[in-house]
Amino acid sequence: MNMFIDFYTLDLQYTEIYQIQLRRQAKLQSSLCENSLHALWSDWSLMVDVPSGSKIRRTPVIRWVENNLTNGTRDITLSWDAPPDNESVGGVKYNLTLSVWPCTKKQKGMDHLTVTQTYNASITYSEARISIFATNNVGSSPRKQIIIPAVKHLNYCDSHMSSNINKAMKTCLEWYKLEDGETRPRTVENFVRHYYFLHTMKKNHYKTAVMCPFYSKQRAPVNGPANVNISDVTHESAVVSWSSIPVVEQRGFLQHYVIWISGQGNTSKPKVYKFHNVSAHKTSFLIKGLHPGASYTISIAGRTEAGTGPNSTVNFETQSKEMGTETQSMQNEK
Fold it and tell me: Can you tell me the distance from the alpha carbon of 197 to that of 152, in angstroms, rounded to the nearest whole number?
């Protein structure tokens, strides 16, 4: 062992308990042998206990629950499990960092040191980043980071939230792509729905004042509705249903669905009817005024302010008048 250095590394067993004492030898003159009786040693130091237990090897697993969402903030409860007993000897502390300040180019973190396994925080409606690592007498665990996503996206602007904003308030604006809710693009893409948050700040405390989806530029939907189906067919009516056009395919705010029907068969001549526009929130429509025993083709498309997208079509036949009347009688008897 080299006596002229101030540190030395020892390999110790996790399952053993150690105590250490040190003493020091004075620097010898060159004319004296190292084993000479003239070698000067210090007294032994006080006995020191080596921290026992194991280093925390597992990354903490964070769970979170949203307890309350009101007035532009939401209360979050964070929780995590303690390390195993052999890693908790001597106590464990948890280092928690919350990056919850919106609109900052560099995320501002709030650091907290706690010995408990829960923590309550109040955050805005936008994304928050939480990280944690555990520390014992031996060392620290790997750091774990989670992202608490933004509040569930709306399909409309919440006009009630903006009533408490005044010119004296300090505000900031941030936005996300609506599809994933986590990216913060530097620029806004055309034909892609984004989602913005307007935050107000008072005494260094932020809350969300407005949430709203938006497009920088819109186009017609790229596809028509999927899964178009016909049901409840009678001699004079039928129900058409479909799946909503996904947001990524809408490329704009969907205003309504447009339904066309063309008829042939025993009608005197083919006719094309343009039905009422159907609300964008609906996925079915009752078609009335059809002819008995006739063949029909239904086309349905979504429409934004930029235009109407491609059609999805389905074919069907109405019942004969006799069969339709019989079916109606059976339903009335039930």
Answer: 12
Domain boundaries, the chain: 62-148, 159-214, 226-333
Topology match between the domains 62-148 and 226-333: yes
User: Rounded to whole angstroms, what are the CA distances from 260 to 276, 277, 315?
Assistant: 9, 10, 12
- pLDDT (tens, 9 = 90+) of the chain, 334 residues, equals 454 556 777 776 666 667 788 888 776 665 555 555 556 788 888 887 766 567 788 899 999 998 877 788 899 999 999 998 878 877 899 999 988 767 766 656 678 899 999 999 888 888 888 999 999 888 889 999 998 888 876 666 765 655 566 666 788 888 888 765 556 667 888 999 888 888 888 776 788 888 888 999 999 999 999 999 999 999 999 999 999 999 889 999 999 999 999 886 555 555 656 678 999 999 999 999 888 988 999 999 999 999 999 999 999 999 987 765 655 555 555 5
pTM confidence score: 0.64
At the fourth CATH level, the homologous superfamily of domain 62-148 is Immunoglobulins (2.60.40.10)
User: What is the spatial order of strands in the sheet that 144-148 belongs to?
Assistant: 109-114, 93-99, 128-135, 144-148
Helix count and strand count (H, E) for the chain: 2, 21
Fold of 226-333: Immunoglobulin-like (2.60.40)
